[in-house]
Amino acid sequence: MILILIFIGFAVGAFGTLIGAGGAFILMPVLLLMYPNEKPEVLTAISLAIVFFNALSGSIAYMFKKRIHYRSALIFSIASAPGALLGAYTTKFIPRNQFELIFGVLMLILAIYLLFPRNESLKKLKKNDSQYPVYKLIDFEGHEYSISYNMSVGILISAVVGFISSLLGIGGGIIHVPALVNWLNFPVHIATATSHGILAVMSAIGTAEHIQAGQLSQVWDKVLYLGVGVVGGAQLGAHFSNRVKGVWIMRALALGLLSVGIRFIF
To answer: Using CA atoms, how far apart are residues 183 and 170, in angstroms rounded to an integer?
Structure first.
């Protein structure tokens, strides 16, 4: 079982970091299937703890690649904090069968949305195209990216994501990445990296609430083994991130969400 948990953690870390989603949308359904009698709040606590290790490891790797937009990551992390605390607290009031249905419906909605993206968000941003400030970011390979977005919309999205992510133990990256790309016009590779920075803070807050509630006291061994795998996997995912085209990252995320959503609804 130890080796299985380490392998699961590695796979979750690699794929989750590659697409900037933290991997919890893969881990959470696996935990639900492996531990059918466990309470949702305990599984959510495990998942969020692993999201933290994954996001922290991935963020360090993306930091060296110079793809994190720190200003956005800081602002959106602060905006997500209240929702993360509230979501972690609310989980214990949801029965397991309702939890699985809510989880499946959310995955399906996100998958459908990603399969039909707004084409205008894929256009290259020019300074005169936006009414908002344009920020420049140059990564370690010398690629220049332009970022411009409505700050109020970004803060609102982050507040909602903070609540949903902690409620369902999914970290929030599966919502933040498409939101950053389609609504805030972030380049895909900058969105995945910045999302990881936000995830590190958001998941730390949600995990702290679960620890305070005592929901990790009996499952620290599972967190340890999954964490060992996820840290290594995150480094691998970040390494391959610059070799995968943005459109394929989004498609991979959509297909993953679609399969998970169908499984838990039907």
So the answer is: 20
Q: Are 169 and 28 in contact (CB under 8 A)?
A: yes
Q: Kindly state the DSSP code that residue 265 receives in the 8-state scheme.
A: H
CA 226, CA 47: separation in Å to the nearest integer?
Answer: 9
Longest dimension (CA), the chain: 56
Residue 27: other Cβ atoms inside 10 A: 28
- Contact (Cβ atoms closer than 8 angstroms) between residue 69 and residue 185: no
- Higher-scoring residue by pLDDT: 170, 148: 148
Query: How many Å is the Cα radius of gyration of the chain?
Result: 17
d(CA 36, CA 126): 51
Q: Give the E-state strand segments of the chain in sequence order.
A: 135-138, 144-147
Helix (H, G, I), strand (E, B) or coil at 136: strand
Structure token digits, residue 173 = 């990256």
Model confidence at 121, in pLDDT bands (50, 70, 90)? very low
Name the pTM for this structure.
0.80
**What letter does residue 148 receive in the DSSP assignment?**
-
Specify the residue for token string 């344009």. Answer: 134
145, β-bridge pairs: 137
The per-residue pLDDT for range 130-163, each reduced to its tens digit, is: 678 888 899 988 989 989 889 999 999 999 988 9
Q: Which residue has the tokens 């039909």?
A: 116
The answer to whether 206 and 165 are in contact (CB under 8 A) is yes
**DSSP-assigned letter for residue 217:** T
